[in-house]
Request: fold
Amino acid sequence: MGKKRLRPVDLAREHELSAQAVRNYEEQGILPDSERTPSGYRVYTPLHARALRAFVALVPAHGHQTAAGIMRALNTDDIETALALLDEGHAQLQQDRQTLAAVETALRDLASSEPQAPPRGGVTFIGGLARQLGIGPATLRKWEKAGLVEPQRDPETGYRVYGAEDVRDARLAHQLRRGGYLLRQIAPLIARVRHAGGIGPLEATLDGWRARLTARGLSMLTAAAELSAYLEDRGNVPFASPRA
Reply:
């Protein structure tokens, strides 16, 4: 690229940043090293402007920490590390999409099936709940240890008792386990249900969840284009043909 001289404020203005933020990014390795004037002022070029555009595009796609790691790798010509970080981001997005699909399926299954009413006192015991789900009591105890269900104890007998919300959580956990999800993957989803106040309110959040995943995917496309342009300007894209 040309050697047009730019000041920190020139780079900052495009992204509504402060000039100090631009200087900080250089010190953190997010931008390539700048040259200095005889009086010590930083001198940036259009290549630095391109690097800043790439970083700003990476942040909503992969998060600040990963975006910084990608830029530091590229600025030291460590292409493989940068690509590995990008791959991890895409893999995480795919996993999040699969998790959303699993939750939607589980909610549909719960909505279409009629749970058995709890017996006396509005609660059921571990044996009865295990029979409803077609699993063993040991499985429910394992789920409790993992935080998927939180039964109370009968004050007289000390037995576990499951209220309506506990039954709901156990049924949702059962559906997700049938879908192949691990306990450590299910636990935060159950927590989300509890935080939302039940299945109904959670269903209302799924559209927002899906919209965030879509926005992240689109941000990844934008970031990829900016990264490609930056690498071509640096001249270190393996097997890339020069721009016309």
Remarks:
- The radius of gyration is 26 Å.
- The chain has two domains: 8-92+218-234, 93-211.
- The CA atoms of residues 25 and 31 lie 6 Å apart.
